[in-house]
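Appendix C reproduces, verbatim, an entry submitted by the partner laboratory led by Prof. M.T., so that reviewers can inspect both the input and the predicted structure.
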Amino acid sequence: QVQLQESGPGLVKPSQTLSLTCTVSGGSIRTNYYYLSWIRQPPGKGLEWMGAIAYSGSTYYSPSLKSRTSISRDTSKNQFTLQLSSVTPEDTAKYYCARGVVSTWYYDYWGQGTQVTVSS
């Protein structure tokens, strides 16, 4: 059974960098059937796709967040990370990591999500 678990600080100050880690268990993150994404949901709003990292290590970002977002992975720890720089209160959201099936927008496994609040 594949499980994804987000971890990171729940409170970040404006202008700082938000860093989250997703630990994957029950399956390797280096499989060419899947890609790994970060998705967030601000309060009262819908899901927003932030970016993804593929089997090859290639990364893809939402155009609206590209200048502030970086996704990387540590295959030795079966983890991938999100860094979002220059955060503002508008970045307050519940952040999810998820595993997507290659060539689709279907996500078969999700983490439970972690709430991040941007506030001074």
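Residues 88 and 94 are 14 Å apart (CA to CA). Additional entries are available on request from the coordinating office.
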